[in-house]
Amino acid sequence: SIRISHQEDEPDNFAQSVIKYLYNTFPENVPSEQNEFILTIEKVGPKIGSELRGKALMAMFSSLALILLYISIRFEFKFALGAIAALVHDILITLGLFSILNYEISLSIIAAFLTIVGYSLNDTIVIFDRIRENVKAKHRESYAETVDHSINQSLSRTIITSFTSFLVVLILWLFGGEVIHGFAFAMIIGVVAGTYSSIYIASPIVVQLHASTPKK
Prior knowledge:
Blueprint (H helix, E strand, L loop, with lengths): L13 H12 L20 H29 L2 H24 L6 H30 L6 H33 L2 H35 L4
Helix pairs in contact: 2-3, 2-4, 3-4, 3-6, 4-5, 4-6, 5-6
Subcellular location: Cell membrane
Protein name: Protein translocase subunit SecF
Pfam family, one: SecD_SecF_C
């Protein structure tokens, strides 16, 4: 497949000009029936691109808002802020690498971003659950020590789950074909980023917010 960036001020017959150029440049590869050479032509104009971008941002912000509400109800608001910070980190890291490598942001990549949010959130909630259990046990430890102890208890589960998930998406990236290549690459980045953000971003933010909260 060939992807060509089409500028807004270019003529409407730009696609036909490209097809004619390909016919003339690679005549040996053109079959007798030229329709077999060009299977489909898809055009994404600025209006459609803007609409897709708007819907993608709406989906992302809606999911983050619902996550904030869910964790605030299930745990505490400080846990919700820690989880949101970790999720935003994961998305920005993935988006940044896509920008550096000049990867196209398509609908499958947007789906990968939402999948990354779900994966990272699941990992974070497992740690938060352990923190809540240990805090209720009333150990003679500071809050920071309790969080650290909870992370250590969840570490083996986190590593095993992340490693198996990483192997799956790596195999998809290597052998899954071009259609799923971008999705799998985004998931590779997301699994790695989500694993350490749950430990090194979400939990420390909870500790800092707890320390800054006035004690009753």
